[in-house]
Design brief:
Shape: elongated
Structural class: mainly alpha
Number of strands: 0
Length: 68
Amino acid sequence: MAVLCSMRGTSEAEQRAYKRRNVVERSLNAIKQWRSLATCYDKLALTYRSAADLHTAVNRSALLGDRS
């Protein structure tokens, strides 16, 4: 696995924390991008939450489907 040049002098714990933060950040950005089309048409908080929940359900079902 490649190590970023900026992370060479950091401890393993810091590298693991960075990777976890990166996964969370990418997940949140994917949710935001997925629901961006819906926000053009409806600005209600309920619609935003529903789209985020639907995206989560679709992603989890896709991940579970790959474990066969």
